[in-house]
Amino acid sequence: MSERICRSLIPKISVIGAGYVGEAAARHLITREVGDVYLFDIMEDVAKGKALDLYHAAPIIGTNRRIYGVNVAADGDGSEYAALEDSDVVIITSGIARRPGMSRDDLLKINAKIVRDVADKVQKYAPNTIVIVVTNPLDVMSKVAFQTLGWHRDRVLGQAGVLDSSRMASLIAAAVPCSATDVDAIVLGGHGDTMVPLVRYTTVGGIPVSELLSKEQIDEIIQKTAFAGGEVVQLFRNSPALGSAYHAPGAAVAQMAEAIIRDQMHILPTTVHLEGEYGYEGIYMGVPVQLCNSGIRRVIELELQPHEREMFEKSANHVKKTTQEMQALLGL
Ligand SMILES: NC(=O)c1ccc[n+]([C@@H]2O[C@H](COP(=O)([O-])OP(=O)(O)OC[C@H]3O[C@@H](n4cnc5c(N)ncnc54)[C@H](O)[C@@H]3O)[C@@H](O)[C@H]2O)c1
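Predict the joint structure of the above. Result:
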């Protein structure tokens, strides 16, 4: 009885996919004591091993939160997903990276199938949770989860903008130089080369960034932000184990989960299903969103200047095209 009472006071976050990003997210979540974390993976015992390893650090980190690993069979009935029950937030990072010889369509199909299967289990075992998708291609995988779950868009979100904005902010901090925590940057749009950094809204300690850096410096930072993920992949090239960035992506999705669980009302660039905002319907795009304990509290529609609108449209058209390709491939 007492155990049930205690349990209900501790938020539960499930992370499906205990790869690099899932593990990094879990580490942030327990370090910040956001809740207990359940890591799920199809690689037998890997999630359990990572959970155990992370928990061994609890006394050093100084956290009271627990972390558990759950094995899920690749071709079973999915009953192991019963461990999702009562999750406040479910983070989906399960997927594969593109391998040599694999086309973009192949990757899209494989990851869409993984996300669809996982979303089915979330629907079955955690029907009241809030889902944050991380698996790439992010905008399209968020739509796959949304269509599979059939929930209101307030509870099916994607992570991209928090990461892209943090990358831009860190590059600004290094250029000024100043504390990274003084920088507020915002990047909207689709996740990828067509992202939309909004320099007009970027400040350092409340001061517009244009007062502190030259136009050339800002342009260079914008370019570097768009290719930041690719730069990390390139730097990892000599390690057979490493694929793409994971520390910052894990921290980004953990920040979103914390904002939701703690009902912080933070306004964060979040990938959401547009339903008329910014002139678009039926695609997932990054826009400013106020997050609360029921997911989206409010989608904020900014008055974009002509050059910003042009970038946003380019990005939206790219996402729309990929979303339609995915729907045709999957017969949705
Ligand atoms: N949205 C973003 O900003 C962002 C940033 C970085 C990475 N990503 C994406 O996140 C995903 C994860 O990246 P990563 O570096 O952690 O990859 P990873 O390969 O290290 O981890 C993926 C994990 O998913 C597991 N998995 C696969 N199918 C599964 C299933 N059906 N059920 C449970 N687990 C399953 C794999 O076994 C693996 O451990 C990739 O799609 C990557 O492209 C997105």
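The chain has a mean pLDDT of 94.
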